Amino acid sequence: MESAKIEISVPKEMIIYVNSKDKKEELKRNALILYPYIKDLTISHGRAAEILGIRKLDLITLYNEIGLPYLNMDISEVEEDVKTYQAIQRRIR
Length: 93
Hints:
Layout: H1 15-18, H2 23-39, H3 45-52, H4 56-65, H5 75-92
């Protein structure tokens, strides 16, 4: 992964949190920067992982560790998916 430097403005109180040289913290920060673009479907988890230079599963695991679920469905969405699956199964038989 090729890196580029950018300058961003943050509140002074954030500097100690953003200016880490730890590679894992840097990866986490960059993953968090990408997360809104995953959430609004601008990019996929796979593309974000590619940008970060890691495997998709590693990115999903990282997000899970910080409380951002890979699947974010409420019960009504799950129930709808089950109904769709059942309808397909009935057509196959």
